[in-house]
Prior knowledge:
Number of domains of chain A: 2
Number of strands of chain A: 5
CATH class of the largest domain in chain A: Mainly Alpha
CATH architecture of the largest domain in chain A: Orthogonal Bundle
Radius of gyration of chain A: 17 Å
Order of helices and strands of chain A: HHHEEEEHE
Distance between the termini of chain A: 48 Å
Helix content of chain A: 25-40%
Number of helices of chain A: 4
Strand content of chain A: 15-25%
Low-confidence stretches of chain A: none
Structural class of chain A: alpha+beta
Largest sheet of chain A: 3 strands, mixed
Largest interface: A-B, 39 and 38 residues
Oligomer: homodimer
CATH topology of the largest domain in chain A: Arc Repressor Mutant, subunit A
Strand order of the largest sheet of chain A: 4-3-5
CATH superfamily of the largest domain in chain A: Winged helix-like DNA-binding domain superfamily/Winged helix DNA-binding domain
Mean pLDDT of chain A: 96
Amino acid sequence: MAGVKFSRQRQAIMDYLCSTKEHPTAETVYTNVRLHYPNVSLGTVYRNLNLLAEEGEILRLTCGDGSDRFDGNPKPHYHFLCNGCQRVLDLAMEPLNHIDILAAAGFDGIIEGHTVLFHGKCPDCKK
Amino acid sequence: MAGVKFSRQRQAIMDYLCSTKEHPTAETVYTNVRLHYPNVSLGTVYRNLNLLAEEGEILRLTCGDGSDRFDGNPKPHYHFLCNGCQRVLDLAMEPLNHIDILAAAGFDGIIEGHTVLFHGKCPDCKK
DNA sequence: TCTTAAAATAAGAATCGTTACTAATATTTT
DNA sequence: AAAATATTAGTAACGATTCTTATTTTAAGA
């Protein structure tokens, strides 16, 4: 990648994101990376999360509740937001390519893609 | 609605939202309502937009780009965000009820619903 | 290895969207 | 009309994110 240099901090952010199944916020990434690099700054975390998301190495999830979350798995997949505990879980389902076709019908622009977020009660909260 | 009183300001917000096909932000609602009521405050706009959204009289759209937008049409429908001009357009497509079933397969929680946002180039920007 | 230019950093200030507070005003009830 | 209660304008405060600046790291070349 042109003009991008390695940095320990970015590597640590990437490592943390890939080590968890949670979908942490920038703040959570910050506190966890700080366990190994006690003086990374929050700005560094934000800057690198943005960079990694733009490069397509991680996913950014905007769930509409406060802060964005990030996912170390960049392969497109769908997410579920629990309205009980606010946790975000991965869903095992195939890409819904057909809905882009449905959206394109009768629309005079170009549909390039979509984001979907499911909501409800997670396994723990449904009790 | 118990404990809710009429107010000219809320009515003006509602009127404006119903008069436009755009999907304005709180700030845009504010500047437009101010044309008729020059001293409504931004706080009043936010408070009423939240109230109306909770009552189900309007829709709140979280597109992940800066601020939330609002739609005077409360009937569930899908939206398109242009990555050229950032405009949000309505799409004419039926509710995708089946995707909740797909999501529920292999998921041990309860899927209550979903939000979808399509993106691409709007009719103007595709040229 | 030493030098050097470009990129990344820590720390903190600044900005943006939004919410909370408060005293005054508008709406509804009696 | 008076009392009760919701709503308001104005402003302070807030959380999330971005920006600024001086310093440190990285990587490429001599």
